[in-house]
Specification:
It is a single chain. The chain has eight helices and no strands. It has helices at 2-12, 19-38, 45-70, 78-90, 111-133, 138-158, 171-183, 199-203. By secondary structure, it is mainly alpha-helical. The two termini are 25 Å apart. The longest helix is centred in the N-terminal third of the chain and has 26 residues, at 45-70. Helices cover 63% and strands 0% of the residues.
């Protein structure tokens, strides 16, 4: 596996890539997004409920995107399938951990996708939500989806840490990692598509 990963890095990771800069870009963009949006929220029980609904929408969307788009070759989304294939090729059930920080190239979303999420996808989705449910839902809805992006990346990162390290000292996170390890096995196209939490895997019978 070590020899394979070395060859994979040489073939796939650009020579200019620096994992530390990638992590820093994610952290800065995410922190600024959360602070800016949270500062605009008028806090109330209704706002908290809307944030919770946004998180519920996000975990649902993530499950279906992962299961039906990233694990299939869809016209126009071949690049997404390819990136996801790289992730599964590099991180397999018998080797879930990254060896160096540059290995997050196959773990974190590229910064351009993070920016696309915040400047294209999120504004468009929020406008639709505002038209359907009213303008008062827009800011809490944005905050929920902003929080989701950070939660998704951090939980996914945690699932690729060595067992017993950091949050994996707690049983809940260990169970999430075990759930994700199965997805990185030969069952990758069949099971455990919920990355942050497994609720839809239970609902649709894809939990293994």
């Amino acid at each position: 596996m070590d020899r394979y990963r070395k060859a994979f890095r040489q073939k796939v990771i650009p020579s200019y890539y620096r994992g530390a800069l990638h992590v820093a870009a994610f952290a800065v963009i995410q922190f600024v997004a959360v602070v800016v949006v949270a500062s605009q929220v008028v806090w109330s029980l209704k706002a908290v409920f809307i944030i919770a609904m946004a998180l519920a929408y996000a975990t649902t969307f993530t499950y279906f995107l992962h299961r039906f788009f990233l694990h299939r070759k869809i016209p126009g989304l071949a690049w997404a399938h390819k990136m996801h294939h790289w992730h599964h090729t590099f991180y397999q059930s018998r080797a879930m951990e990254y060896d160096t920080l540059d290995d997050v190239y196959m773990l974190l979303m590229p910064p351009w996708i993070q920016l696309l999420y915040y400047i294209v996808y999120l504004p468009l989705l929020t406008i639709v939500a505002g038209l359907i449910f009213g303008n008062e839902v827009m800011v809490p809805f944005v905050l929920g989806l902003t929080l989701w992006y950070g939660i998704y990346e951090l939980v996914h990162w945690m699932e690729h840490l060595p067992p017993g390290k950091g949050p994996l000292r707690f049983s809940l996170f260990c169970k999430l990692r075990e759930h994700h390890v199965i997805h990185h096995s030969r069952l990758k196209d069949e099971a455990n598509f919920g990355i942050v939490e497994p609720s839809w895997d239970y609902v649709f019978g894809t939990k293994k």
